[in-house]
Amino acid sequence: MILNIIDALRMSPNRYLNMGLAFQISIPLTRAAPCVLPAALDRKHERRPRVSAARASNLTSSKKTPVPLPEAVDAVFIGSGMGALTAAADLASKGASVAVLESYIIPGGSSGWFERKGFRFDAGASMIFGFGERGTTNLLTRALATVGKRIETVPDAVQVRYHLPDELDIKVHRKYDEFLAGLIKRFPHEEKGIRKFYGACWSVFNSLNCMPLKSLEEPNYLLQVFAAHPIACLNLLRFIGRNAGDIARDHIKDETLLKFIDMECYSWSVVPADLTPMINAGMVFSDRHYGGINYPVGGVGRISEEIVAGIEECDGCSVHFRARVSKILFDSTGAACGVKLVNGRTVSAKAVISNATRWDTFGEKGLVEAERVPPSEERFRERYVKSPSFCSLHMAVREKGLEVGMSEEQGMDCHHIMLDDWDEIETARDGKGTLFVSIPTVLDKSLAPPGMHIFHVFTPSWVDEWEGLSRKEYRAKKEAMLETIVARLEKKLFPGLKSAIEFSEVGSARTHRKYLGRVDGSYGPVAKKKLPGLLSMPFNRTDVDKLYCVGDSTFPGQGLNATAFSGFACAHRVAADLGIIGSLPGPIDRFLTDLLSRQRLKL
Ligand SMILES: NC(=O)c1ccc[n+]([C@@H]2O[C@H](COP(=O)([O-])OP(=O)(O)OC[C@H]3O[C@@H](n4cnc5c(N)ncnc54)[C@H](O)[C@@H]3O)[C@@H](O)[C@H]2O)c1
Ligand SMILES: CC(C)=CCC/C(C)=C/C=C/C(C)=C/C=C/C(C)=C/C=C/C=C(C)/C=C/C=C(C)/C=C/C=C(\C)CCC=C(C)C
Questions:
Q1: Ligand 2 close to Cβ of residue 437 (< 6 A)
Q2: Which cofactors must be present for this protein to function (predicted)?
Q3: ipTM for the predicted complex
Q4: Is there a domain that residue 226 lies in?
């Protein structure tokens, strides 16, 4: 869901140019001293002054003199999504030299942003998990703290309000008891089942939330975590091969309630409960009541801006924009040893980490040449497919015109999910399926001028719907999507919306493909068939020596908090491989890791 570059350049070319130039920064080549890090997690919040996106980008660079791309680093990252930034920050904090190469002009990938006429829009992610203060699952708070950063957030009292068929109007309150009371009121005959299903989610979450979260393919860590938390580990083993739908069906019989649970899963995993791993459901359905959903003041883009600033404060570490990688380089042993950019420049590295999707890394036109793609990637493609992309509407809306629809009962919650017909949940095209609505100005007024709201509305959409159109037809299709979606929202949620819109922009699956560098603009990999929970999702190592993946193509999948986990896990495995942290003796480590991978791949 990202901006149209032509419009962006038309509106403010210098700004984007400046942003690009601001990041032509580099570093000395030798191994760096560890940063003076990290800030304690309980450090007092500091409200940062609001700055424009361009200025904020310039400010993220703590280094005054632009320096060129490094020739060699410990770890080079392809892309700067949340997975890569977390891993880079963690490695930087451990003393490794890192270079992050991002093809776009700002960091964050799906958690990026753009500005128009004094409005700051979130390009993608807007409902943020993992920003809590307690436990170990608050991985975004931790990713920032790794490089000494922290962001002020606004707690959201309601995670989401569902407006579903069968007049199912459910608010997911931050307070668990309030959410449960609302659901039980609607399905009193299923009280026991509801408590059992969501109770199982808590059981998963509590087990995760008591242990340090690192790489599951680092046997030394696994042994330690088993020794320190045996009950929690055994409990996780009980759930790791299961899907949420199976557990829901163990306890619940009412078909409408089961459809609601499908929607609860679909709203973030884009597959129904049957295909949604229970570990992930446990995280999402519990963290929203534990750490809560918290909106970062100044917009979602602040997270990646701050992590970038933190990385750049570490010796030997840098982040580069307009730095598109065209291929991964290999040495004579077949191990990855660096990357080549589209401009012909190269960076050598002891570890190469791809934050591009699996398809963009190993696919037909991917970063790894066909003859080097290992057979395990074929197995991945047998199990996972690309989810659809989204069509996104970004709208600046006058508060005044909306008052008609904003009765106390209707409420102005930040996030809404709307569906008119259960059969349309996954399949409907042309804006007739599930609508996701995010109005971040409900929580943070600073994103828009006084009296204005930001609406980000999106719906699943496939790239094939947008291919083969002339320029005129493409524009007309965007217009038609806008009309259909606004009409649906006016009818059910926001009367007066149409006339309150000051301006709008529509992003298609093609927009996502282009600006996120994601194949077909896909939201991420989803199970092709019913799989044993998370068991067959690849970890960070690949079958190519010294080449790692990070981000939503790796365990545990989509979501900022999930990709932050993959980042921590990746940094841990890479640090062990580079000898930065201790691990079991090499051959034993390799034997155990391979054994674990082989067993998982059979599943
Ligand atoms: N509310 C939410 O939490 C929410 C909402 C929307 C999306 N998401 C999810 O957030 C997750 C974040 O994903 P992620 O960490 O895997 O990454 P990402 O897709 O967000 O970022 C990848 C980055 O890599 C860059 N890139 C790709 N190929 C490149 C190349 N060849 N050279 C240089 N740069 C290149 C892209 O420009 C992009 O910035 C995704 O799962 C996404 O679906 C979450
Ligand atoms: C040996 C073995 C293998 C094992 C052993 C046992 C153990 C130890 C285990 C462990 C495990 C672990 C650690 C795990 C972990 C996990 C995790 C961390 C997970 C996470 C997850 C998360 C997630 C999934 C999240 C997500 C989210 C999302 C996606 C969101 C989204 C949202 C949306 C899109 C919505 C929007 C809406 C509106 C706007 C309305």
A1: yes
A2: NAD(+); FAD; NADP(+)
A3: 0.89
A4: yes
